[in-house]
Design a protein that fits this description.
Structural class: mainly beta
Strand content: over 45%
Order of helices and strands: EEEEEEEE
Shape: globular
Strand order of the largest sheet: 1-2-3-8-5
Number of strands: 8
Largest sheet: 5 strands, antiparallel
Number of helices: 0
């Protein structure tokens, strides 16, 4: 009925109406740093939105703030910029993206 491919926390699902759901597990991002993340598959037409949630601070206690920056990448249908706007290293992030 619909195509999907997941490997652990990363993968995608194509729905019959053309909507694509994607998720990714991202390694740590240093304090004040950024990481350009490639989606499991490119969105053919449009990236509609992205949500990122920090998994844990490297020190285990300090709150982490993550920012999404679609304006800093060449093609937001293929990649997204994730920024750690905190003062401590991020121990990992989970990403959810929706597009078509």
């Amino acid at each position: 009925m619909f195509a999907s491919a997941f490997s652990g926390a990363s993968g995608y699902c194509k729905l019959p109406n053309g909507v694509i759901l994607q998720s990714a597990a991202i390694s740590g991002i240093p304090a004040g740093g950024s990481l350009e993340v490639t989606y499991p598959i490119p969105f053919p037409n449009l990236m509609m939105f992205v949500i990122a949630a920090p998994a844990i601070a490297a020190n285990g206690t300090t709150p982490i703030s993550i920012a999404i920056d679609a304006a800093s990448v060449t093609d937001p249908k293929k990649t997204i910029m994730i920024r750690n706007v905190s003062t401590v290293n991020n121990g990992g992030t989970r990403l959810f993206a929706l597009g078509r």
